[in-house]
Amino acid sequence: MPLHIGIVACSAEGAALCYKTICTQGAELYGPHAHPEVSMHTPSFAEYAARSYDEDWRGVGEIMLASANKLAKIGADFLICPDNTIHRALPYIEARSPLPWLHIAEVAAAEAAARGFQRIGLLGTRWLVESEVYPEKLTARGLDHVRPDKGDCEELNRIIMEELVYGVFKAEAVAVHRRIIDGLKDVGCDAVVLGCTEIPLIVNDSNSSLPTLDSTRLLARAALHRALG
């Protein structure tokens, strides 16, 4: 039997995309209409947002741990979190987690290395881009990284928190992402990680000047393979 996937969800759009990818692409590995058992727990996003704005990452971690405990009790075998930003909090609670985690940045870094990329641009909330969540995993594989400048980070953060998490997708937001990606290309990046699980809803290889590393779908596919053991 495939392992039971537990999804520790944060914002709705990214979690929904990850869940849908698991269910629809499972057929490629499991057969027609098949996918592993999947359970998801989602507290109010307001709880995560408030602690993020307060830079209370230990508090974020406790919310993640509460979800992890609930998923363990209903039979999940391992956990994924389709939210890049709150991976900042994972080190605070991972040792107390009842189940192992599949790390979203590790999955993206593995894909970058497998595809031969060398210098990765980072997109996401300001909390994610300013953190070591991705640099740590990329550096471990000998890969370089570039962060957008502070002004661009703030604009990305605004778009994510005021538009994308609500399912609001504007042409202006796409244009901002494309401009920032173009700038990352100009400084030598050969790929860009879509380090917010909502960004793949507006940016992909068809409208990006750099190859994209879609963290949401990469995590979902890695979970499908993990569930096969």
Write the layout of secondary structure elements.
Elements: E1 5-8, H1 12-25, H2 27-30, E2 38-41, H3 45-53, H4 57-73, E3 78-80, H5 90-93, E4 101-102, H6 104-114, E5 119-123, H7 126-129, H8 133-140, E6 144-146, H9 150-162, H10 171-186, E7 191-194, E8 212-214, H11 215-227
Parallel strand pairs: 1-2, 1-3, 3-4, 5-6, 5-7, 7-8
Helix pairs in contact: 1-11, 3-4, 6-8, 6-11, 9-10
Residue share in β-strands: 5-15%
Indicate the low-confidence ranges by residue numbers. Answer: none
Note the gap between the termini. Answer: 9 Å
By DSSP (H or I, 4+ residues per run), the number of helices equals 11
CATH architecture of the largest domain: 3-Layer(aba) Sandwich
Task: Walk across the major sheet and give the strand order.
Answer: 2-1-3-4
